[in-house]
Write a structure and sequence with these properties.
Layout: H1 3-22, H2 32-43, H3 62-68, H4 75-89, E1 92-97, E2 102-107, H5 109-117, H6 128-131, H7 135-142, E3 146-148, E4 161-169, E5 176-185, H8 193-224, E6 232-234, E7 240-242, E8 265-268, E9 274-280, E10 283-288, E11 297-300, E12 308-311, E13 314-317, H9 320-331, H10 338-346, H11 352-366, E14 370-371, E15 376-377, E16 381-383, H12 384-392, H13 399-402, H14 415-435, H15 438-445, H16 454-461, H17 468-478
Parallel strand pairs: 11-16
Antiparallel strand pairs: 1-2, 1-5, 3-4, 4-5, 6-7, 6-10, 8-9, 9-10, 11-12, 12-13, 14-15
Helix pairs in contact: 4-8, 10-11, 12-14, 15-16, 16-17
Length: about 475
């Protein structure tokens, strides 16, 4: 892009920036990547008049953070690739961790002094939720190389800077563990610098992959020395290394947030079965769990009483939202994503983030009964509304009504649950009217919708006068 084009783009950005800072509609939007970043930054409460990135690390802890970081051995490689550029042009090379905290930087004296003024120094954090749109934070948020040009920064103090940055992904864990960035003045830093920065990040990832393969080979040799090769060999991050020739486990086993090397622990596999995780050298062995009858999840959601769930020997009341989630998971045994759950609960106004938070709280109560990706129930389920469904298909005329204390979660406004509730209600009513069996009619008449059902009460009132149910029905018809 020529300087004339850059100047024209800067004028467009200044107008958009002034509007964004004032909370007005933007007359001209920046390019899509930057527009999305501005929205994230404004939603995070970033002040466009901020002056510096925050210092989030005690200077005394930086040395330990550097020593323990997986990019530490690769710093000479990154420096060799990029620091010459920084030394010759006055730019600054930055390497951060996966949260955008600056761990290392290279550059000449003048460039480093300018960087100090905005917190482009060790221990300062450059995530978007700290300083808004910038090369480091936006590359980490978008998980791709980016070039952020002068006025594309949301904070006005950064408008004399441009930066090219690329995230670095650890091939072992699959997580973004850092970011490499070159920052400098707008005129001096060419947008094509992002290609060089991206190449440096890819070079680091290649080195990480080679080191990972070397660790895998050492671990595999120890595993092959075992008699019978018991279990499946996993890396410390859960990657499947050996022992699963059919690929049933996929590339990785989710170890959970509290994977430990102190004793066995249980993990739920993607097919819902449970296995034992046993520490082995620098990784784990995955073994079949001893067969045992899994606890049953019992749901009582019909009628006007509070919804309750029992898992194994423990019974507990549930909030309406948790009862709704369990209802939907029971109705969809193959599982639902957070987006699907959100739509079934709230319609188009749903927010998957809210669902993930609710699932997290629910899993704290029910533990291994709920698996993720997709969310699903992994244990036997006995639910009163599922039992009612089966009885409606049976040949026992009075059975559905006796098993029906009232509507499914009557306070729920979930579109999916309302449909299920209305369908069950209509089927139970049609069943008792079709068969005309007195016990079924009377049982339905005790529900909230059946108490004043004129047709049901008329059928009951026609019973012999010696039947007390007839008297009760006539009384209701007259009231």
């Amino acid at each position: 892009m020529s300087y004339a084009h850059l100047d024209a783009y800067s004028r467009l950005l200044r107008g958009a920036h002034e509007a964004a800072a004032a909370g007005r509609a933007w007359p001209h939007s920046p390019r899509r990547l930057i527009k999305a970043s501005w929205r994230r930054s404004l939603d995070a409460g970033i002040d466009p008049e901020g002056k510096s990135a925050p210092l989030v690390c005690d200077p005394s802890s930086i040395r330990d953070m550097r020593a323990s970081h997986p990019l530490q051995p690769l710093l000479p490689l990154l420096a060799q690739t990029l620091s010459g550029l920084a030394d010759e042009t006055g730019h600054v090379m930055i390497v951060t961790d996966g949260d955008g905290r600056v761990l290392w930087r290279e550059g000449n004296g003048a460039g480093l002094r300018r960087a100090d003024q905005i917190g482009l120094a060790a221990g300062h954090q450059w995530a978007e939720h700290n300083v808004g749109t910038n090369g480091i934070g936006t590359a980490l948020a978008a998980r791709r190389p980016v070039h952020v040009y002068t006025h594309e920064h949301l904070m006005r103090v950064l408008h004399i800077w441009s930066c090219s940055a690329a995230p670095i992904t650890d091939p072992d864990s699959g997580r973004v563990i850092g970011c490499v960035d070159v920052s400098g003045t707008a005129r001096a830093l060419h947008p094509a610098t992002v290609a060089l920065v991206s190449a440096a990040a890819k070079l680091a990832e290649t080195q990480l992959a080679l080191r990972m393969l070397e660790r895998d080979e050492r671990l595999r040799r120890r595993y092959e020395a075992l008699r019978g090769r018991p279990g499946v060999l996993l890396s410390a991050t859960g990657r499947v290394i050996s022992g699963d020739p059919a690929g049933d486990l996929g590339e990785r086993v989710h170890l959970g947030d509290r994977a430990t090397r102190c004793g066995d622990r249980r993990v739920i596999l993607r097919d819902g079965t449970t296995a034992l995780l046993e520490p082995f050298s620098d990784g784990f062995l995955l073994r079949p769990a001893p067969s045992a009858a899994p606890p049953v999840l019992t749901l009582s959601f019909l009628g006007e009483g509070p919804p309750t769930a029992a898992y194994g020997d423990r019974a507990r009341p549930l909030s309406l939202r948790h009862a709704e989630i369990l209802t939907l998971l029971a109705l969809h045994p193959h599982g639902l994503t957070a987006e699907q759950l959100s739509f079934h609960l709230y319609g188009d106004a749903g927010n998957p983030v809210t669902i993930r938070a609710e699932i997290h709280r629910l899993r704290a109560q029910l533990g291994e009964a709920i698996a993720a990706k997709p969310y699903r129930l992994t244990c036997p389920v006995e639910a009163d509304f599922l039992t009612l469904r089966r009885l409606l298909s049976s040949n026992e005329p009075a059975a559905p009504a006796r098993a029906y204390p009232g509507p499914l979660l009557p306070r729920s406004e979930s579109p999916e649950i309302r449909r299920e509730r209305d369908e069950l209600e209509a089927q139970v009513r049609a069943c008792v009217l079709r068969h005309g069996e007195p016990d079924g009619l009377w049982a339905y008449a005790q529900t909230c919708n059946g108490r004043d059902d004129y047709e049901v009460l008329e059928r009951l009132a026609a019973l012999p006068e010696t039947d007390l149910r007839a008297a009760a029905a006539r009384t209701r018809l007259l009231s």
